[in-house]
Design brief:
36% of the residues lie in helices and 14% in strands. With 453 residues, it is α/β, with parallel strands linked by helices.
Amino acid sequence: MTFPPESPAPATSLTAHSDALFGRAQRVIPGGVNSPVRAFKSVGGNPRFIARADGATFTDADGQTYLDYIGSWGPMILGHNHPAVRQAIQDALPFGTSFGAPNEREVLLAELVTRLTGTEKVRFVSSGTEATMSALRLARGFVGQHEPARKYTLKFRGNYHGHADALLVEAGSGLMTNAAALGGAAPSSAGVPPEYAALTLVAEYNDAAGLDDLMAQRGHEIAAVIFEPVVGNAGVLIPHADFLAALHRVKAAGALLIADEVMTGFRLSLGGATGLLGLKPDLTCWGKIIGGGLPVGAYGGRSEIMDFVSPLGPVYQAGTLSGNPLAMAAGLATLSELERDPSIYKRLERYTAALGAGLSDLASQAGVPLTVNTIGSMLTAFFLEGEVQHYGQAARADTAAFGQWFRAMLAGGVYWAPSQFESIFVSSAHTPADLDFTLSAAQRAFAHLKEPA
């Protein structure tokens, strides 16, 4: 059979082919999907199976085209199937798909990443989870050479750092369970031993006093503090200035500061969220945009820390496909385009701000409670009244109303993130006409919410 199909066969419903594929997938893939949020469980209905993507749109197996706001969950800052990225992959492809040995493109991408971010050394891996997991191991090893009692990691409620055991604790996206004790933690997944969770302390995001208090009590036990500079997996949460200052103070307690920029790296600025917010972490993790849509992750920092990684140091980390030549080519092309035209960031910010303001106005007119958080090209529309600055506030959102609104948006041709607790992502391929189309669909979707059941 050919893929994608030239044109779908006649169907009895608009989603017949996607529904059939989902049925087949459920027989051979857990839940029918390879990442949970894709299953639409929190919004209802069946997922659309995508046949192709171009610019700001993608087309499903039934031939329906949607205006896309997930952008493969962030990597597609230039839009889908960007000519420069596609050409870079095509140029690399004739020479092989994987070597298991060094290649020039990984050097070029490492040089570009370090120059743009001010990082001294970087190590490529194949996913964001692998990057954060490796950075934490490195931090424990580096700090532990002099202070072996520092075996704990501190993270923040609602921050998601991938699915490694030690990081699936109070992990956002509806998985958190609040702990009463200061620094207490609970696993967010079955299969994570409580003993693992016990090594991960938790604090409240945007609570500077709470962070200072925890560090005063237990800072001598903590090897590293890992955080999302801007949270995306509890919906978009934006840090306060006093919280950023408190993050820097953890260094005074001897802990390393690890910025998880898997989502925000190169999305909010060429220097990422840390560059935008003036943060100076000891280690930074990247993913998504750094691979231009192909599977890539990375972590980096000062040479004295990074040189503690094997083969120079005693902290072991390896990866068969790390530095994959096709992924390196896609990442090089993406970051080069962003560097060539840094005005992209201002255009993305204007579009996202206009989208957020439009959604707020339309919801108000329709009498629908809505709070919209935006920063750069990231946005979450929370179905609630009042500010949303930490996960406890986000968790009050009306997920049933969001699910109903999501389905109405999808029917109107707009593919929003299928979870209340996620960010949507704007790309440089989105146009003023797309903004008008989105707000028109949103107006109908808000009106649908007020209709009698």
